[in-house]
Amino acid sequence: MHSLQAPSAVVMIRPHAFASNPETRDDNAFQTLANRSAEATSAAARDEHDRAVAQLRDAGVTVHVFDDFGDNDTPDSVFPNNWFSTHPGGHVAIYPMFVPSRRRERRMDVIEMLKRDYRVQDVIDYSGLEQDNLALEGTGAMVLDHVGRIAYTVKSNRADPVLLERFCTHFNYEPIAFAARDVQGRDVYHTNVLMGIGTHYALICLDMITDPERRATVKARLEESGRAVIDLTHDQIAEFSGNAIELTGRDGLVLALSSRALAALRPDQIEIIQDSATPLPLSVPTIETAGGSVRCMIAGIHLSRR
Question: Half-sphere exposure of 78 toward its Cβ, with a 13 Å CA cutoff?
Fold first, then answer.
């Protein structure tokens, strides 16, 4: 089966100099420090990445892997979904990033591969807006309902409202922006840590949306799309249960998420997922110290093959 929401091909970046990025620690409450040497941390992250790639390929997902040998000092490059996104109809977006080290993650070899292997009509590059200190960090900042054409977006310094409007106009999405905070009252930095949208269900911590009216709107819009809403707790978000991506594998839909994220879900929540998709747990504990999980590692390709 083909799902507009769940791509069957993805891009992943193999890290050789992974680290928890000091530049992003101020507003990413999910970051922790790995308690071992830089070399050991980087090697563990690379092993986790390679195992994740192997599992995705075993499930029938096409994975395009690019190495980052660390030449540009890009500790977060394992999270490529922030700097580009792809869209049905042959459209690609390149995004402006919030901190300098993340701006260096953009690479034209990825875009060239997309143009070579897939049907790309146009590439819209917003990255020049970094000079005005504007950021819109791709499908980290926006969780896209590709079917209903909605861009759910947490208000943060990673998602400029003017840029969000511009993206939505170009790519034909309706923006739904809202403030969100964790249980300690800290602003959430990326939308994809608190929600993920599948074909027939959505994972979201409604409790994190601070405004009751916005919370009701988001819930209603997800339900209107025919999806079962799996309401996550703050504790489940802390375990990265919202940071998941649905993909199309050989035998149907799979939900890629971390082993830790799946372990935090209740049996009744897993049952809703299993009605239409097979959970695919990937063990990435070292990579999670950088404040992102499986969703962040995977840039979906919503383009037709050449």
Answer: 32
Tens of pLDDT, residue by residue over 242-260, are: 999 999 999 999 999 999 9
| Contact present, 94 and 102 (Cβ < 8 Å) | no
Rounded to whole angstroms, the Cα distance separating 22 from 101 reads: 10
Q: What is the DSSP letter of 186?
A: P
Q: How far apart are CA 135 and CA 226, in angstroms?
A: 32
Structure tokens at 248: 């199309």
CA torsion angle 67 73 79 83 (round to 10): -100
Cα–Cα distance between 81 and 98 in angstroms, integer?
14
Give the single-character DSSP code of 260: H
pLDDT tens-digit readout, 185-233: 989 989 999 999 999 999 999 999 999 999 999 999 999 999 999 999 9
What are the CA-CA distances from residue 86 to residues 5, 100, 124, 265, 282 (Å)?
12, 23, 10, 29, 23
Question: What sign for the dihedral angle of Cα 51, 301, 78, 265?
Answer: negative
Cα Rg of the chain (Å, integer): 18
91-94 and 84-87 as β-strands: parallel, antiparallel, unpaired? antiparallel
Q: Among 149, 146, 210, 136, which residue's Cα sits nearest to residue 178?
A: 210
CA angle 61, 63, 65 (to 5 degrees): 165
Q: Which residue has the higher pLDDT, 268 or 20?
A: 268
Contact 21, 290 (CB under 8 A): yes
Q: For residue 87, give every residue at least 6 positions away whose Cβ sits within 8 Å of its Cβ, in sequence order, or none.
A: 93, 146, 171, 302, 303
* 205 within 8 A of 234, measured Cβ to Cβ: yes
pTM over 0.90: yes
* Res. 37 pLDDT band, cuts 50 70 90: confident
